[in-house]
Predict the structure.
Amino acid sequence: MRAIVTGGAGFIGSHVAEALVARGDDVHVLDSLATGSREKVPAGAELHLGDIRLDARTLFDSVRPELCVHLAAQADVGTSVERPDYDAEVNVLGTVRVLDAARAHGTHVVFSSTGGAIYGECDGPAAEDAPRRPISPYGISKLAGEEYVAGWNRLFGTRYVSLRLANVYGPRQEASLEGGVVAIFLERLAAGEQTTIFGDGEQTRDFIYVGDVVAGVLAAAEHAGGVYNIGTGVETSINALHAACRRVTAIDREPEYAEARPGDIGRSVTDPSLAARELGWRAERPLEDGLRLTWKSLQEAVAG
Ligand SMILES: NC(=O)c1ccc[n+]([C@@H]2O[C@H](COP(=O)([O-])OP(=O)(O)OC[C@H]3O[C@@H](n4cnc5c(N)ncnc54)[C@H](O)[C@@H]3O)[C@@H](O)[C@H]2O)c1
């Protein structure tokens, strides 16, 4: 299959590109390297340096892909608060340009949306029809992207899929980007540095291993239309995550606590049962197992 992975030089995109190459696809990565890097693009995938806002159509015209996994985004909540116009340009206008280019070639699209930033504060595992209460420009722009995807399906009979990803972690995640709390804890522990928990640490998240996300993307690539949570349904507190990181690294360093950050969500967890029923997908990797793989890869990277 000919495939375009937008954002394939980023954390999740590089894993998706790797899986597509492994199954024998002809894989083209469109990435501006805004936050991604060349080194992340897997061998066997071709990197096209470009911006989804400007260059999607030209690349689609030359590759004529059957599949597009659209992961390129402004994916940082803090940046979206500081520069909501830039966030909207990339996540809304950029997505519209990708959808239009895809439609011109009959390309199936899998769009990466977000669970946490769209549901906001949760009372329990949020199903797809739970109230959507984004509390950042990032959540708003991703929700807008989803609405374009659903709208394209209604207007043009396309069968695109949106995946609401929970908190993804795994090898190649950047500690410098917000949200990468696993990468931050592991890198700091490795460097012998202090780790900080904001608030009392009892806030919860739904941590999903990147390999499980890739499996969800591949399942969605075979599926026609819809919105699906790609999460574990398991709530893990930041305190419990920190304790798990200490166990996995065997570095027993207590965290320090700092004032809660404004806007930090107390509970964030998604209900993955619809994806289990309709995509035949479920998260397989337990947290400590995924942390172990992430830690191993970090140590290999440090060792060179
Ligand atoms: N990491 C998570 O926990 C998480 C959770 C929910 C949803 N997502 C979504 O998954 C996708 C991938 O996230 P990630 O964590 O791998 O982030 P990332 O920042 O590592 O990847 C994003 C990639 O998009 C590229 N990019 C940014 N703007 C671009 C543009 N205008 N044109 C072309 N390329 C551009 C970046 O260079 C980068 O390689 C994003 O859409 C994000 O919103 C991520």
Observations:
- The chain has a mean pLDDT of 96.
- The radius of gyration is 18 Å.
- The pocket of nicotinamide-adenine-dinucleotide is lined by residues 7, 9-13, 30-36, 51-53, 71-75, 90, 94, 112, 114, 165, 167-168, 177, 179 (CB under 6 Å).
